[in-house]
Amino acid sequence: MRITVNGPASRLSQYAGIGARRESRQPPPWPERSALPVGDPRLGLRNRWSMLGTSAIVDREPVPVQAMGEDLVLWRDGEGKPHLMSDHCPHRGARLSIGDIVDGQLQCWYHHWRFDGDGQCTWVPSQGGACSLAENTRVATTYPVRELAGYLWGWIGEQPPAKLELPDEFTNPDWSTFPESVEWGANWMLALENLVDLMHAPFLHARSITLGGGATQDRALVNDHDDGFEVTRKNQAGVNFDWIDVHTGNLPYVRLDIPLPPSAGPGPPLRILGFLLPRDNDATLVHFPRFRAVSGRERQIWRTLYRLRLRGTHLHVLNQDKAMLESMRTVEEARRNEHLAQADRPVIHLRRALEPRFEAQRQWMAEQSLQSTEVSFD
Ligand code: FES
Ligand SMILES: [Fe+2]
Q1: Helices (H), strands (E): how many in the chain?
Q2: Going from the N-terminus, what domains does the chain have, and what CATH number goes with each?
Q3: Residue with CA nearest ligand 1 atom 3
Q4: Nearest to residue 61, comparing CAs of 93, 94, 21, 120?
Q5: Which pTM does this prediction carry?
Q6: Which ligand is nearest to the CA of 256?
Q7: Any idea which ligand is nearest the CA of 94?
């Protein structure tokens, strides 16, 4: 069992840093320790940009973030610049995310050692502050973070970060947007397979206002592009969830359109981008910022309707996906007796497209363990 407090919503608030946990100054319970070693592809693909959340998930206090099987702390320095590093003090191992920001640095609560944004220890008060012990001490792991378009983006990996280029929807003012994030208690690969699987919509979401329509029998088509592939249906377009654009490069994400009913106000279909942040082998944070290319009065109508009515409808649909994925949980459990249909062609394509990356990561893990063996015999 994973550790949760008052259900998944509360867990999300604690681990994403949304909420008022600091009032009690109690650490949130540790997430269940991953049984998999860091780097295992089941924990996510490393050396890529991940959306961590909106800029609002961290303010003046550090917050814990569980990502790809690692316990990390996200915090802002004196200039408001975000930093992401191991949630583990290199003095005696206390959790840095229950520390404080002092003089723009992260201070461990236990003995008040301080660390800068690079993870370098700068202050050991019991030895007078700045000293050679401080100079020789660092937080074990730090990861690059960028803040762009109202979101925080982390590069979780060992290689130098690639240039972060955001999809047009984040920068083009034609789009009106709302952030949205949900947590699914299932492996990230199952969440991604759910997204490329267009044919689940008229079944699982049969009773939804937006995704219930269209034919229930069709063929799935797949076409590669420079940064991934597109999935369409052979006999249907623009009726339901009939198209998805999958990006598998330095910033993995999906792009899809959902036709909206007249009750959603005038305007084109809803555009959704999807970013997955694997927590662990069996939990994934899914960011689904929503966009609609509307302006003027249409934009006002859309934003009002979205807040009052449409958001609830969308969350209801996402809960249907959540129920399915949480009934599957891990890749091994889901594939135990798998029988794929033609409509699963995008799922097969996705697995094949990612396999070289999985393999590269397995290689990296093998090299890491070789190195540590070598070190222990020195
Ligand atoms: S454990 Fe962090 S300062 Fe001692
Ligand atoms: Fe769905």
Answers
A1: 9, 20
A2: 7-155 (2.102.10.10), 176-356 (3.90.380.10)
A3: 111
A4: 21
A5: 0.90
A6: 2
A7: 1
